[in-house]
Amino acid sequence: MSADDPAMPVLTATVLQSPDPVRLARFWGALTGWTVHEEGPTWLRVRPADGGVGLSVQYDDAYQAPIWPPAPGTQGMQLHLDLQVEDLHAATARALELGATEAAFQPQDDVRVLLDPDGHPFCLFLPGA
Questions:
Q1: Which residue positions does the secretion signal occupy (predicted)?
Q2: 2 confidence band (pLDDT: 50, 70, 90)
Q3: Contact, 87 vs 125, CB < 8 A?
Q4: Are strands 54-59 and 13-18 parallel, antiparallel or unpaired?
Q5: Domain segments of the chain: what residues?
Q6: 3-38 pLDDT, tens per residue?
Q7: Cα(46)–Cα(52) distance, integer angstroms
Q8: Buried b (16+ CB within 10 A) or exposed e, 55-91
Q9: Where are the beta strands (DSSP E) in 9-117?
Q10: For the structural domain made of 1-61, what CATH number should be given?
Q11: Distance from the CA of 6 to the CA of which of 39, 68, 106, 123 falls in 20 to 30 A?
Q12: Residues 44-69: what's their mean pLDDT?
């Protein structure tokens, strides 16, 4: 909390819904190098070593993967994560090896849109992109 204003909220995590939160948390932990804190089969935290903002994964038996790019009448993307990398080709290959898939639609040459194992879109991008 802010020392100047105790009513000021502090972002600690983005929460992803998943039908298999253990698998998804382990994917994000492997991709980012962060630690997975398994607090049970329905709620997991993925955090950097410095304790900064991280991800949480929550079980959702009614989860529907978003569609990218958006299409009328389908579950749209409500957010995506942006991850800066130094080597786009190598980072994309690594993400694919860990279980991501490459989206069919790629809007820019210096950005790769990928989908995590549950279909959440995320982007790998080069500095300055």
A1: none
A2: low
A3: no
A4: parallel
A5: 1-61, 64-129
A6: 689 999 989 999 999 999 999 999 999 999 999 998
A7: 10
A8: bbbebeeebebbebeeeeeeeeeeeebeeebeebeeb
A9: 13-18, 35-38, 43-47, 54-59, 81-84, 101-102, 111-115
A10: 3.30.720.120
A11: 39
A12: 94
What's the rounded Cα separation, in Å, for the pair 110 and 112?
A: 7
- In the chain, the amino acid numbered 109 is D
Q: What phi and psi values does residue 103 have, to the nearest 5 degrees? A: -65, 145
Q: Record the tokens describing residue 1, joined without a space.
A: 């909390």
Q: Which fold has domain 64-129?
A: 2,3-Dihydroxybiphenyl 1,2-Dioxygenase; domain 1 (3.10.180)
Are the C-beta atoms of 8 and 2 separated by less than 8 Å? yes
